UniProtKB/TrEMBL annotation:
Keywords: 4Fe-4S, Iron, Iron-sulfur, Metal-binding, Pyridoxal phosphate, S-adenosyl-L-methionine
GO molecular function: 4 iron, 4 sulfur cluster binding; catalytic activity; metal ion binding
Key word DNA damage present: no
Native species: Thermothielavioides terrestris (strain ATCC 38088 / NRRL 8126) (Thielavia terrestris)
Protein's UniProt keywords contain Oxidoreductase: no
Protein name per its UniProtKB record: Radical SAM core domain-containing protein
InterPro entries hit by this protein: Aldolase_TIM (IPR013785), Lys_aminomutase/Glu_NH3_mut (IPR003739), rSAM (IPR007197), rSAM_sf (IPR058240)
């Protein structure tokens, strides 16, 4: 099994949490949760897809070989629990910790941004517990991403806002919100494969991620069951994989495949090679990409020479080029604070190795929905040779109304940013249409009524399943409508 830190099963607010490193004991005060501080290492459960023996689950630090820059900013030492952790230990993706919240949250934190009201540590942790109980996604974060958070003011930190739910900031769901807003399950000819566009398919070999986003568009299947959602099973098995790959190979008009999940960071190196070589060998496939948030949430893995995952990606990329085909890594940064010298070094390694890296950002309220932040993110990505590919309007999935913005926000951001950076580094600002219409430029709506918050789109290229001439609707958050914003 993948070694990780799990917080589960200990009922009752206020239970003390162990504050030690390296223990394999499950501890915590969050009831009935899969709230995990994850360590990305062994990939898939060895009992499922490999005949090799299960690895020892004891966490071992594997230092990064020949990489530690001089005078680097050791930002994680600001966290008291990690003040003695070296750069070599921190960069290792196998490193992990326990007792995090009680160790890092101050006795009092600002409740409002002005700091006129305070919240105690106990109240904050209770707020987290209540939020996780109401959330659709299990909670899992890597040590790297935890260390990029401002723990003096966690309620308003733009990184934590993406991954740790607070019940006090949640809003009632819009009546149109669903778990599978993009209707992926309806566009799945075989389990774990979505075929919506004529020439592109989405292959989902796993449903596990190193860090779970609260706003996940695949909340119907990704991660462990929660208090509110029993997940659709996408358990990784050879039989399911073979059925998906056989379908891909059988479609002569299918030329492009996204290997996602979950997250392809959870595939073992041999699985990256197996899938990559299989796709390279298909005459109909001209390009494919591995989708992984790993570069944003666990970039040390790219630098760890003892790990084979990135070597497998580089090997597949080079082999594809020799076959005249294109391979890319599609990653997911949402805020400039997620960038550090570690992610820069990892990006540079990939750039030097010739791996194309593109980024897909989700527009999120209170995270990146202002001009200064979005501009800084796009430029920061470009400076690291990560191509800003998409900025998505947040999907209409349940329990994320507090993170969604009105369509007008994405329209304004695109208008103000376009022309401020080279066109080939300018992302496309898109809406992935509810109901399975696919991605459309946000500005390409047929109509947009700010009073009702309803925008309407058509998708002429997306056909089948009664989609011809269909009109797709996106709904602004209820609290953003003029009649509510004025009150």
């Amino acid at each position: 099994m993948l070694p990780m830190i799990a917080r589960r099963g200990v009922p009752g607010h206020g239970a003390r949490v162990a504050s030690q490193l390296g223990s394999s004991r499950a501890v915590g005060s969050i009831p009935r949760l899969q709230a995990q501080v994850a360590d990305v290492s062994n990939g898939l459960d060895q009992s499922v897809l490999s005949t090799s023996a299960r690895r020892d689950e004891t966490l071992t630090v594997h230092p990064v070989v020949n990489f530690t820059p001089q005078n680097c900013d050791e930002f994680w030492r600001k966290v008291p629990l990690w003040e003695k952790v070296s750069a070599r230990e921190f960069i290792s993706y196998r490193w992990s910790l326990y007792g995090f919240l009680e160790a890092v949250v101050p006795e009092e934190i600002p409740y409002d941004e002005a700091g006129t009201r305070m919240q105690t540590r106990s109240e904050y942790i209770q707020d987290v517990e209540d939020g996780i109980t109401a959330a659709t996604m299990a909670i899992r974060m890597t040590p790297y991403i935890l260390s990029r958070i401002n723990w003096r003011d966690p309620r308003h930190d733009p990184i934590l806002r993406q991954f740790l739910p607070l019940k006090s900031v949640m809003m009632p769901d819009h009546p149109k919100l669903t778990l599978d807003s993009l209707h992926e399950e309806e566009d799945s000819p075989v389990q774990g494969l979505v075929h919506r566009y004529p020439d592109k398919a989405l292959f989902l070999p796993t449903s596990v991620c190193p860090t779970y986003c609260m706003f996940c568009t695949r909340s119907y299947a990704v991660g462990a069951n929660t208090e509110t959602v029993t997940k659709a099973s996408l358990r990784p098995t050879r039989r399911r994989w073979e059925a998906a790959l056989a379908y891909i190979e059988s479609q002569p008009g299918l030329h492009d495949v996204v290997v996602s999940g979950g997250d392809s960071y959870y595939l073992n190196p041999e699985h990256i090679r197996d899938i990559g070589e299989r796709l390279i060998g298909m005459p109909n496939i001209r390009r494919f990409r591995f989708a992984s948030k790993g570069l944003a949430v666990a970039p040390g893995r790219v630098l760890d020479e003892s790990d084979g995952w990135v070597s497998a990606v580089i090997d597949v990329s080079n082999k594809a080029k020799r076959a005249g085909k294109a391979v890319a890594w599609h990653t997911h940064f949402n805020h400039p604070n997620e960038l550090s010298w570690i992610s820069s070094a990892a990006s540079q390694k990939l750039f030097e190795a010739g791996v194309m890296v593109r980024n897909q950002t989700v527009l999120l309220r209170g995270v990146n929905d202002d001009l200064k932040t979005m501009s800084a993110l796009i430029r920061g990505l470009a400076d690291n040779n990560i191509f800003p590919y998409y900025v998505y309007q947040c999907d209409m999935v349940k329990s994320v109304e507090h993170l969604r913005t009105p369509l007008q926000t994405i329209l304004d951001l695109e208008a103000k940013i376009r022309g401020s950076i080279a066109g080939f580094m300018m992302p496309q600002f898109v809406v992935d249409l509810p109901g399975g219409g696919g991605k459309r430029l946000a500005c390409s709506f047929e109509s947009y009524d700010r009073t009702t918050g309803i925008s309407k789109y058509t998708a002429p290229a997306v056909t089948g399943r009664n989609k011809e001439n269909r009109v797709y609707e996106y709904y602004d958050p209820i609290d953003s409508l003029p009649k509510n914003a004025a009150t």
